[in-house]
Amino acid sequence: MTMTRARIEDRRLRPILDKVESCERLSYEDGVAMYRSTDILSLGYMANLARERRHGDITYFNVNRHINPTDVCVASCRLCAFGKRAKDPHAYTMSLEQVWEAAGRGYAEAVTEFHIVGGLHPELTLDWFCQMIAGLKERYPGVHLKAFTMVEAAYLAKRAKISIRETLERLKDAGVDSMPGGGAEVFSERVRRIICDHKIDGQEWLEAARAAHQIGLKSNCTMLYGHLETAEDAADHLVRLRALQDDTQGFVTFIPLAFHPDHTALAHLPKTTGMDDLKQIAISRLMLDNIPHIKAYWIMMTPGVAQIAQRFGANDIDGTVVEEKIYHDAGATTAQHMRRQDLLRLIREAGREPVERDTSYRPVTRSESAFTVLV
Ligand code: V47
Description:
This protein has helices at 3-7, 14-21, 28-36, 40-55, 96-103, 126-139, 150-160, 164-174, 189-195, 202-214, 231-248, 274-287, 298-309, 326-329, 340-349, 368-371, and strands at residues 58-62, 64-67, 113-116, 144-147, 178-179, 218-225, 251-258, 293-294, 316-319, 353-356. The protein has 375 residues and is an alpha/beta fold. The chain has 2 domains: 5-43, no CATH class; 55-373, Alpha-Beta Barrel (TIM Barrel).
């Protein structure tokens, strides 16, 4: 037995280490065993091995802006504190001009990506969204438009009475460059019935992602954890994402999202702990051997945990995230954006080399003068 193997405290992880060392794919059962384990250092060791094999010391970040054109939503998912009924006096819907104006507010020169998601609005049409996208492209031609979750696209398709593929083609023609990973939650039907019963089911989410990838739209993928899911549900979710990725190679980044219960109908549930968050990052890296990037989203796991995650399997920390709303409505106490210099410090102090990237993970080089606008 090698020294490393002997140091693996949880004996059930030893055969998993053998597989990781020989680059062998882990099984669903391995996933369940890892979720059941509390041997966080061994999980971290293995995940770091896989991470450094692929990415060395690099940690990616980007300079992005979130735009949420509306929080009006016909679904009332118990997991969500963001969506509002149209009648709610606190609900908002931006006009096209307001979206275009919000996109350019501050730091516009530096932003390389707009991350655009919102509620399932009962009246805004596919044409309206295509106009919104085309208007953004016209005004900010150099900015990558990462827009609409699979859930939003499926809803627009249903309302327009056309296929998901045609809907995605229309959005792509209007200027959508790729899609974010939200709305996947956890694929387990049992859990979905409780936390988001108004949403498309797991199979439909995967089929929408397949259609996006088939027409050349890359996307991210996510899993919402820390609510009612079991170890089996979580391992199943990762295995299903991995199977689709084998077919399409369309997923770029996986982002595990910690459930924030405040102001939701599940407010009685406890928040995730540091152990949950780091375990989730490590297991994602180990199970998703065909998805290149694993993101520790600092907004949801706090900058401190996202930093440590860079040694537990993550190779991305998200970005400056100007004006995040979805997590802050659910009680996130992190800032709504982070200064570039603070991101750089977090990454460097984790012993990693920061690389600013665009949405396609191409390095972004900036002149010194450009840094001054990135406070
Ligand atoms: O789809 C909603 C989740 C997602 C809550 O692709 C909640 O680069 C926790 O998908 N507690 C939106 N989570 C965020 C998202 C995302 C974030 C960062 C980067 C990318 C990317 C995607 O947030 C929703 C849902 O899964 N969510 N409410 C809540 N109370």
